[in-house]
Amino acid sequence: MAANAVGPWNDKKKHSDRERWICIYPAYLNSRKTLAEGRRVPKDVAIENPTHQEIRDVLAAAGLRIGVEDKMYSRERSKELLFRGRIRVQLKNDDGCLFNPNFPTRDSVMLHACQMIPKLKTRQGKQGGDQGQSQGGGSGSGAKKKKGRR
C-alpha cells in the first residue's frame, strides 16, 4: 500500500489525518448532474463540468489544506479522465477547532468552489470561445437544417 493510503475508520485518528478530511468529487458541483446523479449544491449555483484540477486550484488559493486522489465517483457513468479525481479537504485541526474559520462546513467549501471556478483564467477563455462558436455555428447549423428540409 502507498504511504498516504486511506485505511479503515478508527476513532483514534486525529483531524489532521487524511482519513478524517472531507471528500469532494467534481460531480458534487456539476450543473449537468441531477441530485440522483450526485449533485450536492443547488443547480443555480452549480457549474458545468468542473474538473478536480479546477477544484484543487481554487481551494488551494483559499488557504485550505488539500489532497488529490485518483478515485472515481461511484455514480459517475463515464470512465473518462476528465471525470476522475477526488479532492480531500481538512476542515478541523487536531484540537477540534476549525482549520479555516471561513469554511466551517463541507457545504461552505463546495459553495466557495462554485463561486470561484468560473473566475479562473482557464474558464474565462473557454466561455468566450464557446460563445463565439455557438453564435457563428448557430447560423451555420440553421442553414444546414433548412437545406435538409427542402
UniProtKB/TrEMBL annotation:
Keyword Ribonucleoprotein: yes
Biased composition (Gly residues): 126-141
Organism of this sequence: Gryllus longicercus
GO cellular component: nucleolus; signal recognition particle, endoplasmic reticulum targeting
Location in the cell: Cytoplasm; Nucleus, Nucleolus
Record function comment: Component of the signal recognition particle (SRP) complex, a ribonucleoprotein complex that mediates the cotranslational targeting of secretory and membrane proteins to the endoplasmic reticulum (ER). Binds directly to 7SL RNA. Mediates binding of SRP54 to the SRP complex.
Major subcellular site: cytoplasm
Keywords in alphabetical order: Cytoplasm, Nucleus, Ribonucleoprotein, RNA-binding, Signal recognition particle
Name of this chain's protein: Signal recognition particle 19 kDa protein
Biological process, per Gene Ontology: SRP-dependent cotranslational protein targeting to membrane, signal sequence recognition
Region (Disordered): 120-150
Family: Belongs to the SRP19 family.
InterPro entries: Signal_recog_particle_SRP19 (IPR002778), SRP19-like_sf (IPR036521)
Keyword Ribonucleoprotein attached: yes
Molecular function terms, GO-annotated: 7S RNA binding
Domain of life: Eukaryota
